[in-house]
Amino acid sequence: MRLIALYRPPPDPAAFDKAYLETHLPVIGNVPGLQRTTLSKFTRTIQGDGFYMMAEMFFPDESSLKQAMRSPEMAAAGDNLASFARDLVTLMFAEDPMEAR
């Protein structure tokens, strides 16, 4: 199970990257149940709305993800994210349809 964060282009990409990499990633790393996080920075949009970056946070299952969402560590991560990306982010739960079978 994954928590996916999609980020719209920030007004100052260098400042966003610095805040994300130096402050947000260490805070999100403390969330219970988080197995790993991957980042993808988009280089080109072929069709549809353009996004700047995607973060995928992997959890063992939906129950673990829901527990993590209620944790003080996730609250701290949310507060940190709001300090520099409040209006830029869309958060979604996702599952691999092949694993759901």
Q: How many structural domains are formed by the residues?
A: 1
Give the averaged pLDDT, no decimals: 95
Classify the secondary structure makeup into a structural class. Answer: alpha+beta
Supply the CATH class: Alpha Beta
Describe, in plain words, how this protein is organized in 3D.
This protein has 101 residues and is an alpha+beta fold. The protein has one domain: 2-Layer Sandwich (Alpha-Beta Plaits). The chain is 38% helix and 24% strand. The chain is built from three helices and four strands. Strands 2-3-1-4 form a four-stranded antiparallel beta sheet, with no helix packed on it. The protein is globular. The model has no long low-confidence stretch (mean pLDDT 95).
Short summary:
The chain has 101 residues and is an alpha+beta fold. It has one domain: Alpha-Beta Plaits. It contains three helices and four strands; from the N terminus they run βαββααβ.
